Every structure is written in C-alpha cells, then in structure tokens.
Amino acid sequence: MNSQPTLLNWITCDGVHIDPSTGKHTLLGVFSSIGSNRFPITYPFMVWFLTVTNVSAGEHKLRISFGETPETVQPLLERPFVSQDLKHRVNLINEVSNLVFPKSSDYAIVVEIDDQVVLKTSMPVLS
Q1: CB under 8 Å to 35, separation ≥6 — which residues?
Q2: CA 25 vs CA 7, 17, 65, 66, 79: distances in Å
Q3: Domains along the chain with CATH numbers
Q4: Which of 113, 77, 96, 75 has the alpha carbon at shortest distance from 15?
C-alpha cells in the first residue's frame, strides 16, 4: 500500500528530555530564529524535533537538507527510522552540531521521507 508520509510538527529547540517512566518528550529551549551581530557564526548545538505519521510499517529513511537558498540545499542529515504502522506517530530527535551561517539570511531546510518532500521551511538568522 502506498502512503504519503505526513509531518505533524517541526520544532527547533536546545534539547529533548524523554521521561524514562512515561516516555513523554519534554522540549527544552524552543526557538524559531537565531540572532547574531557578527558573521559568519557557528551555532554549537540544536535539535530538530519532528513527528511523522501515515508512514507504512517497516524501515524508512529521513533526510534533512540545508542551504542558503532552496536551490542550493545539500543533505545535512540522513538516518533510518522504523514505523509500526500507518497510524503510528513517530517522534524523531535530530541533533545538529556546529551548523555554519555565513551571513544574515533565511536559510532553507527541506525534509524528506523516503525521497518524498514533507516540508520546505526556513531558519531565519537575523543580525
């Protein structure tokens, strides 16, 4: 059965805590842009937390591409994940270290699951 993966959320934050007794996720330091008065900057660490559903049972591939413009994005992160069934919601915690921003701009991000684009967004970096 063919299904179109659905992205339920995309959140940028400083970290994610998973409660060992309940499995609940607590997102720490949620933010939507980065500010700096000097460029280039290297952002030391962030988490891209996303939840997907409508992904068939089995193994799948997540790819996140990043670039200065939508036309220049390059794969930044690729990882496998497993879905239990189409109704299952899969939380994916993606740690990104030492991301370089050469200038103030809206940097492009493209998220794909099994080569299907599920999100095109941007990360505003402000001066």
Answers
A1: 125, 126, 127
A2: 17, 6, 25, 25, 20
A3: 6-126 (2.60.40.1930)
A4: 96
CB 16 within 8 A of CB 93: yes
Closest CA to 89 of 50, 47, 48: 50
Q: Which structure tokens are listed for 96?
A: 């990104």
Q: What is the pLDDT along the chain (127 residues), one digit of tens a residue?
A: 567 999 999 999 999 999 999 999 999 999 999 999 999 999 999 999 999 999 999 999 999 999 999 999 999 999 999 999 999 999 999 999 999 999 999 999 999 999 999 999 999 999 9
The pTM is what?
0.93
Question: Residue 25 half-sphere exposure, CB side, CA atoms within 13 Å?
Answer: 15
